[in-house]
Specification:
With 285 residues, the chain is an alpha+beta fold. The protein has 2 domains: 60 residues; 187 residues, Sandwich (Immunoglobulin-like). The protein has a 4-stranded antiparallel β-sheet with strand order 1-2-8-5. A 4-stranded antiparallel β-sheet has the order 4-3-9-10, with no helix packed on it. It has 5 helices and 13 strands. 28% of the residues lie in helices and 21% in strands. The N terminus is likely disordered. α2 packs antiparallel against α3. Bound molecules: fe (ii) ion (FE2). The site of fe (ii) ion has 3 residues, from loops. Fe (ii) ion binds next to loops.
Length: 285
Amino acid sequence: MRPASSFLQSYLSKDQLIINHFLSSIFKAFKSNQGGLVEVKMRQSYSWLFNVILISFVLLKNVKYGSAGITSTFIRSEWPSIDIPLDNEAFAVPEGHNAPQQVHITQGDYNGKAVIISWVTVDEPGSSKAQYGTSENKYDFSVEGTMTNYTFYKYKSGYIHQCLIDGLEYDTKYYYKIGSGDASREFWFQTPPKIDPDASYKFGIIGDLGQTYNSLSTLKHYMQSGGQTVLFVGDLSYADRYQYNDVGIRWDSWGRFVEQSAAYQPWIWSAGNHEIEYMPEMVKS
Ligand SMILES: [Fe+2]
């Protein structure tokens, strides 16, 4: 009886060596009842069977501890990649005077115990306060954030608010409320689990999203996947395709478009080439 190859042996843990020994004993017991040519044939076939069983044990052991992903069967449709019109409900402006829009969160520290909430108000600067807590409709804490705005060519941004909330507990659902009066809005997010090699946390990776009908289908598909955080690999809105009087408008529509996910879970950003905008008079090179 040959031992398993040294390559395999190097992957075997103690419990598998016990199995190895057990199977070897069965094989020896079997062999002692055979003789001559029969033994040689049986030995070959049982050696093969033994290897199959052994490899199965090795592979099955990895099923428990392994982290093999699942490949989605999703294939996007053949819809034309044209931008969704601005009056489409995908870009709906929330109702109410100065209601927060384009609400999105990102992770606020390296450990997962902080979140940055951002939103835009368009009628007036308004409040940069965020209230939050662990029960719905009951906000035990509040923080005061900052506000900024900018102009670029003919585009004038809304009032952009940002709040850092930190000292959060792991694996906890938090509710938050922003805006004032009738136009206030409420959202929630779940903090990640405590950092651990075996902690389960499901990321989505999205890039080149844009705001076409295909973008909508991609976003809806992602939202059904159960992903808990998006790693965004660049090229967000493709607003740079709009020039002159339309500069910047498609950034705001895109912000309203992704809010349905980005207000409820961290999207972690990196920038792509479409985030570089040029003055309309300049030629891209
Ligand atoms: Fe791209």
